[in-house]
Design goal:
This protein is of the alpha+beta class. The protein contains 5 helices and 18 strands.
């Protein structure tokens, strides 16, 4: 097995042509092509150079000094999915000019609809098989726990972004952009996200295990529709948090005040009441305190 592949190594120049230097790593009989345009300096026979070595898309052994990826053998980082082949796996761009790295289908979810798609992200390192082929290897739970940061209680009810790193029957595991671990229970999502998918989430709790409990569902006031949003805003801008209208109000008065029919008004009020944001009492539509504070939760 070629022990140098997928790593940054030192090498000496042994030959050249018009476009390339040819270099050999120390204690390695393999010869690598180094494009002169990528060399950090002019090389002469016996001159030393240091770079990342790999096999390019034309199956040539190559060294690069300008496009050294952060993803290497035993070095993990995110790469971007650029192509999906159902019979093989997904191709990941790690920054090489002429080589994408395959993550095997054997390492991907059994349900192909949960495979990563283009522009999704996977945290991988590189591994070399017994045929000297480079593959992407997904980071495991131990790695994520090692790099994760402790969550801050101040994040409660905050919105954040993250990447799906693991799919399990119990729920979806996420690494936030600030490198905190998060978990989405199936009841807190409308669909199961793909592996590698970028998600927008809301913090709904902090577990005793040091991870964030997340929801992918919108807040109640974000899911109530335009008419309900209008009523909610009018209540919030009223100093008393009240409007002299209920589902018993005159249709003409409702249309004159809000520009919508009585049916639309009743549906909007129904949505707000179901979300726990308002109530009707004493002939008035009243804003509940939790809605006024902006802390209403999904029900």
């Amino acid at each position: 097995m070629n022990q140098a592949l997928g790593k940054v190594v030192s090498a000496v120049m042994i030959d050249e042509n018009d476009q390339d230097y040819f270099v050999q790593p120390h204690r390695n009989g393999q010869t690598y092509r180094l494009p002169k345009a990528e060399s950090p300096q002019v090389l002469h026979i016996g001159g030393s150079v240091r770079g990342f070595v790999y096999e390019n898309e034309n199956h040539q052994l190559q060294m690069t000094c300008q496009h050294i990826p952060t993803v290497q053998v035993d070095h993990y980082d995110f790469g971007t999915v650029v192509r999906v082949r159902r019979d093989l796996g997904v191709f990941v761009d790690i920054g090489l000019p002429n080589k994408d790295i395959v993550v095997s289908r054997d390492d991907l979810p059994a349900q192909k609809e949960l495979w990563p798609q283009e522009n999704d992200r996977l945290m991988i390192d590189l591994k070399v098989d017994n045929k000297d082929r480079l593959w992407g290897e997904l980071a495991d739970e131990d790695l994520f726990e090692t790099i994760a940061k402790k969550p801050d209680a101040k994040l409660m009810n905050h919105n954040l972004q993250g990447t799906v790193i693991r799919l399990k029957i119990t729920g979806t595991h996420v690494l936030t952009d600030d490198y905190q671990l998060g978990f989405v229970h199936p009841s807190e999502r409308d669909r199961e996200p793909r592996l590698g998918e970028r998600v927008n989430a809301r913090v709904i709790g902090i577990s005793s295990h040091g991870s964030l409990n997340l929801s992918l569902k919108p807040r109640a006031y974000e899911a109530i529709g335009d008419d309900a949003q209008m009523l909610l805003m009018m209540l919030q801008h009223n100093i008393n948090g009240k409007l002299p209208f209920t589902d018993k109000s005159d249709p003409a008065a409702i249309r004159q005040e809000f520009g919508i029919s009585k049916g639309q008004f009743k549906r909007a009020v129904g949505h707000l009441m179901k979300a726990g944001l308002v109530k009707e009492a004493d002939g008035m539509l009243k804003l509940l305190k939790q809605a006024d504070d902006g802390n209403a939760q999904s029900h």
